[in-house]
Amino acid sequence: MSNPIPMSVDHILDSVGRLPSPPRAIIEIIRTLEDGDASAEVLAKQIETDMGLITSVLRLVNSSLYSFSGGVPSIRHAIVLLGFNAIRNLVCVNGISDYFQKSPPGSFNYDQFIRHSIGVGCVAKVFAKHVSLNPDTAFIAAMLHDVGQFALAVTVPEDYQLVMNYRKENNCRISDAELAVLGIDHAKIGAHLAKHWNLPLEICNAIEFHHQPPDTFSNRSPMADLIHVADVLAHAMELGTSEQVSPLSDNAMLRLRLSLQQVATSLGKIEEEYTDYTQMMGLK
Amino acid sequence: MNRVALIPLVQAKPGMTLEKDVRNSLGQVLLKAGMVLSESSISSLEHKNIGHVSVLQDDVRNEEELLAERNKLIERINSIFQNVSQDGTMGALKQMILDYRLEKLSS
Predict the structure, then answer these.
(1) pLDDT, tens digit, for every residue of A111-134?
(2) Based on the structure, what is the number of domains in chain A?
(3) Which value does ipTM take for this structure?
(4) Residues of A in contact with B80 (CB under 8 A)
(5) Which pTM value belongs to this model?
(6) What are phi and psi of B36, to 5 degrees?
């Protein structure tokens, strides 16, 4: 084959590391998701540091609210009227999808990518409470679990095209194609970025281990277990994409105290969540 | 016979009955399930950037079409599960998804 030789792993990590991070305010909000003392006041301040965020939150809130005459003039009003959790979730989910959408056009399929991420988020949200994980954090971890794929497609597009070609020729999963062509997969790349952006450790772990959650006691991560199961199920249920499924870790299922029977009875609920979210986000 | 279908808003027509509540980006209900769509309610949804709605439709599929849809679904699920073990957990998961979706298809 006369394919060009892809860059070394170090070179790829270097290129990927230059990807602009999501807006500072979004990163700050994600970092404080688990803070018990997070308040409306703090959230308002975080949103108000970013002019773009203020505009987009007020636009969203005002376009969907017709019952408040005169409109919603400020972030603080929006939080009071709609609630802290609703606004925080809206800001994060929209902020992350905006970030992905602003990517240069090319081989990267934004629509499929975001649908799959939301699909994983919906499964994770449904099972998060089951294992006492914060459903909002789980949804954000899911939104970001494939950020490495996005980073590769955007920062080293030619190499990523080789990965895509390899996958097509060998009819394999994307991570196997990445390992074969680049020597590193999107899970590792994504975790590298998440750490670089100072995201919470449990989100970094979920990104890094979403294909294979660690079994050793010292490395265990409930969030990685959850996002792994959610990723497999979202693929199996064709939420967003019809890509090949990865093997489900029996150990992760055991640690989550989740049986296939429980999954079976939740399929309808998951699909409902997925429809609601894609509808809410205006995905055509 | 009626069946539930999730359709893009551009395909929604006056007279169709909503099967589910339509919600906006904040989770607020814009239109309630059971409501019959009109020209004005459809254009108000367009205004609010709603992408899809769930409606009840007459089931006009005949036996042949159903069978074709069924086969297509089975083919897709086989393809999704092609590179994993067909026994154990993955085998059970595949069967579970297949049962669920086939039942949904024929209901």
Answers:
(1) 889 999 999 999 999 999 888 899
(2) 1
(3) 0.84
(4) 235-236, 238, 242-245
(5) 0.84
(6) -90, 130
